[in-house]
Specification:
- This protein has 7 helices and 13 strands.
- By secondary structure, the protein is an alpha+beta fold.
- Strands 7, 8, 9, 10, 11, 12 and 13 form a 7-stranded mixed β-sheet that branches.
- A hairpin with a 5-residue loop joins strand 8 and strand 9.
- It is globular, with a radius of gyration of 18 Å.
- The structure holds adenosine-5'-triphosphate (ATP) and magnesium ion.
- Adenosine-5'-triphosphate binds next to strand 2, strand 6, strand 11 and strand 12.
- The site of magnesium ion (MG) has 2 residues, from loops.
Length: about 260
């Protein structure tokens, strides 16, 4: 199959859902329609609405059912409504002609009151075996519901963000678990797309420290690794990339470095 199909979130999610091991870690993801959004909000309370072919957190909307009605957040703006009808007629204006997906919202762990998640980089090593080459944590901009660096997120060493929730041993176990998920994801996707060489897997943790895969990127950016105190991961990522003909950017303009 041609690799260009791999921009669709729905398509990628459907492929990895074939793995029962992964399926338990993927929040319900469906194509958006009005009645499904209404039902999913009643069931889960919070839903992420995203462009099927989006990137960099652009156009991602968090929708919630509250005690008083409904609210949604896009960028830094929050909109409130007293009925589903009025909320939907407002939110649909953002959609245009694009295809959108709905995903069950995960209540992410927070650090300094801001949600965070992780990006796991996995690449083909010189022996053409899948290998996890690095992970960074991303802390959301103080007023946003997305953690992307390009949306003002801050890049952290994963253990720094995990330290309030898990001791060293448990943090290491969580990181290994995320690597395992990335590995199974890469193995699964490359069965259909053998030409894949690298993936960036976006993983969030809920309050019980269970990992959830939000999406898989087939053209991941290496530059946030340049903001970590240890440069070893970046060096390896760039070297592996070179071996299969990818030139990674190593300067980061948008994401912030952890204080
Ligand atoms: N189901 C969810 N529950 C909680 N947070 C979510 C969910 N989906 C997305 N997010 C938040 O929004 C961010 C952007 O979502 P996602 O990665 O799916 O979109 P994107 O625009 O394609 O980004 P990318 O640049 O990685 O391609 C995630 O990193 C995460 O912080
Ligand atoms: Mg993402």
């Amino acid at each position: 199959m041609a690799k260009r199909n791999l921009v669709s979130k729905i398509h990628k999610t459907n492929l990895i859902l074939h793995s029962s091991m992964l399926a338990k870690h993927i929040p319900v993801t469906k194509r958006l329609n009005r009645s499904l959004l209404s039902r999913m909000l009643k069931k889960h309370g919070m839903i992420y609405v995203k462009p099927d072919k989006g990137s960099q957190g652009k156009g991602v909307i968090r929708v919630e059912k509250t005690k008083y009605g409904y609210r949604y957040q896009k960028g830094m703006k929050v909109f409130k409504f007293n009925s589903f009808c009025s909320m939907f007629s407002s939110i649909r204006k953002h959609f245009g002609q694009k295809k959108y997906v709905l995903q069950k919202g995960i209540r992410l762990l927070k650090y300094k009151g801001r949600p965070f998640d992780f990006r796991v980089m996995i690449q083909r090593n010189p022996k053409r075996k899948w290998e996890c080459t690095g992970t960074f944590g991303r802390l959301a901009h103080p007023r946003k519901a997305v953690t992307n660096g390009s949306q003002g997120g801050t890049i952290y060493e994963p253990s720094a963000l995990l330290s309030p929730f898990a001791n060293k041993k448990r943090s290491a176990r969580i990181l290994r678990r995320m690597n395992k998920l990335a590995h199974v994801t890469a193995t699964r996707l490359s069965r259909t797309y053998p030409q894949l060489n690298e993936l960036g897997v976006d993983i969030g943790l809920d309050r019980r420290l269970k990992p959830w895969i939000f999406e898989v990127n087939t053209y991941p950016d290496a530059c946030p690794f340049s903001l970590l105190p240890d440069s070893r991961a970046l060096r390896k990522i760039v070297a592996y990339g070179k071996a299969y003909g990818r030139r990674h950017r190593t300067r980061c303009s948008k994401a912030k470095r952890a204080p």
